[in-house]
Amino acid sequence: MPKQPGGQRLRLPLEWLGILPFMIFAVLFLILPTMKIVIGAFQTADGSFTLQNLIDLNTDSIRSAYWTSLKLSFVTALLGCAIGFAMAAAVVFGGLPKGVRNPLVTFSGVASNFAGVPLAFAFIATLGPVGLVTVWLRTEFGINLRAMGFNLLSFWGLVITYLFFQIPLMILIIIPALDGLKREWREAAAVLGATGAQYWRMVALPILFPSLLGTFALLFANAFGAVATAFALTGPQLNIVPIKLFAQIRGDVLGNPNLGYALAFGMIVITALANFLYIWLRVRSERWLK
Amino acid sequence: MSFLTMTHLEKIFGQNRVVKDFSLSVEKGEFISLLGPSGCGKTTVLRMVAGFESPSAGGITIDGKDVTGLKANSRNIGMMFQAYALFPNMTVADNVAFGLKVKGAPKAERDARVAEMLALIGLADLGGRFPFQLSGGQQQRVALARALAPRPSVLLLDEPLSALDAKVRVSLRNQIRQIQQELGITTIFVTHDQEEAMSISDRIVVMNGGVADQVGAPFEIYNRPRTRFVANFVGTLNTFEVEVADPASGRVMLAGQGLTLPDAPLAARAGETLSVALRPEALRLGRLPDAEALLTAKVTDVHFMGSVIRLKADLAGAAVSLDTFNRPDTPPPVVGSEVEVSLSGRDFILLQA
Ligand SMILES: Nc1ncnc2c1ncn2[C@@H]1O[C@H](COP(=O)(O)OP(=O)(O)OP(=O)(O)O)[C@@H](O)[C@H]1O
Ligand SMILES: [Mg+2]
């Protein structure tokens, strides 16, 4: 067949055209803002280079904001993984009726995206100081959550609220991984004399480890960046980084945008470190994968 | 008492009786194949022996001990699956050592046993590899080593060769048989490949619809199939209608020629027709001195398969298959030609059911 030079030249651009919207999006909303943040973190208000913003991060209040954020992210990721794993395992192996699985997956799909103001409102309306459940427990059973030390607008209140999207996210991601565990592995282990616990410890968990790790990292990042829920729930009173950040950049007279950039830069660094840790662990645990 | 016994095993899934009144006694060191079409319950029988399914009725003993209620992990059984059953996160050596490890055997003992097993399957240098770095045939050999390492009392194999290509399949089945004989381990092998079953088994159980149709040595199953199903499932079969001449002596007529069937007296009256069958190799090409009858057949197809040549031909109104050995100095008959075929009444198989 004779060569058609025109057709040759058209080919590549056409194939790349499909991902063009994605690339525009990535540049506009990911790369440019990130650059702005990184550059802004090293600028004074009039645009000259400085390290002062980073130095200013080293105050008690900001240090504790980072610490609380890390704790919150870590705790909700860990609990989300553990509880979500148990629920997914119950659905996949626990002999629950087939009819349970699809509704659970559908619900998880919805709940894992339930965040921000609606989620905060939902929790305030149920577990807040005058929430439905709080009042019901008090009037019907005489259980006073507040007197027992529970306060929705606190660290553990935020943990519970975050779990509402962390657990479903875990379920969504881990069910396919659990489906990937072959029946032959379990049966081969059993027939070789292994107990159920030995099978999980020596076979299933090592195989799932990369997925668990990846999901943990995702849940961690998910919680670490979840400003809207936290702010909507507690307002500025809880000291976590996203709220601090929000306070700096929303344009208050008191705000210092460049300190805001430095705060965000700190978040990027922490997320990047977490990702490196994740990738390193994952590579180590995946030597046996193709 | 036999080493492994299954008595009146039954398995019901929902409304479905998948295994019906299945009984079998296996001697120590015997190699038994369960042979049958897809869905006849072979795997279910094997899984009941392994302890993955509990029988709806009946019992299983191993070495005189009733294991019917025991869990899979306390039966001391070795099992090999169809494919992909190696633990992907462990090296070959760790896979083979697994059974000993969960039993708490010391490391030195495990290492020695792993080396011994890898040598047995001819993969001594591959202990450090992961399963994905092995070919399908190598993976199955490792699976065999893993199953044998803890010295099981019974070895169960569920179509372990079906995912492999033809050449590897043949060499691996011979290796399995050789190792089995070397270790003298009692073995049940599930397959739906009759050639595979016949070539390596001491005895074959032909299963059909959840029941054992016939149990016997390969020679017996092939030459004296008891049912039409067994006859058809094992090997190729030509069937003819013959007219009974003298039931007492087993004399029948086929295309005007007299033949004497081996199962006299016949359960039929003179003048009735009977269904009989003949293996392709019992229709012999040419005029042979020991033959009872000589018929003419018209060749319709020729398959040259190497050492064997399979002809299709019209014989006495039936389309038949006819096998003859290749001879370097004699080219096979051509399509459309007429050939003489010798046959004898003693080769006929009388089909009962
Ligand atoms: N867990 C189960 N639940 C319900 N039905 C089952 C179950 N396991 C097997 N069956 C049914 O029992 C019948 C026998 O299955 P089995 O796997 O024993 O057949 P098989 O002889 O091994 O077939 P194949 O050669 O295809 O492997 C099939 O009809 C199958 O659908
Ligand atoms: Mg099967």
Report what the structure shows:
The complex is a heterodimer of chains A (290) and B (353). With 290 residues, chain A is mainly α. Chain A has one domain (20-289): MetI-like fold (Orthogonal Bundle), CATH 1.10.3720. In chain A, 75% of the residues lie in helices and 0% in strands. The longest helix of chain B is centred in the middle third of the chain and has 18 residues, at 166-183. In chain B, strand 7 (154-158), helix 5 and strand 8 form a beta-alpha-beta unit. Chain B folds into two domains: 4-232, 3-Layer(aba) Sandwich (Rossmann fold); 236-350, RNA polymerase II/Efflux pump adaptor protein, barrel-sandwich hybrid domain (OB fold (Dihydrolipoamide Acetyltransferase, E2P), Beta Barrel). By secondary structure, chain B is an alpha+beta fold. In chain B, helix 2 packs across helix 3, helix 2 (92-102) packs parallel to helix 4 (136-148) and helix 3 crosses helix 4 (136-148). Chain A binds chain B through residues 182, 184-185, 187-195, 198, 202-203, 206-207, 287-290, and chain B through 50-52, 71-79, 81-82, 84-90, 98-99, 101-103, 130-132, 143, 146-147, 150. The structure holds adenosine-5'-triphosphate and magnesium ion.
Itemize the secondary structure elements and their pairings.
The complex is a heterodimer of chains A (about 290) and B (about 350).
Chain A: H1 5-17, H2 20-41, H3 52-56, H4 60-92, H5 98-111, H6 116-127, H7 132-141, H8 155-179, H9 183-191, H10 196-224, H11 227-234, H12 241-249, H13 257-285
Chain B: E1 4-13, E2 16-26, E3 31-35, H1 42-50, E4 57-62, E5 65-66, E6 77-80, H2 92-102, H3 107-120, H4 136-148, E7 154-158, H5 166-183, E8 186-191, H6 194-200, E9 203-208, E10 211-216, H7 218-223, H8 228-233, E11 238-246, E12 251-254, E13 257-260, E14 273-278, E15 284-285, E16 293-304, E17 308-315, E18 318-325, E19 338-343, E20 349-350
Parallel strand pairs in B: 3-8, 3-9, 6-7, 7-8
Antiparallel strand pairs in B: 1-2, 1-4, 4-5, 9-10, 11-12, 11-14, 12-13, 14-20, 15-19, 16-17, 16-19, 17-18
Helix pairs in contact in B: 2-3, 2-4, 3-4
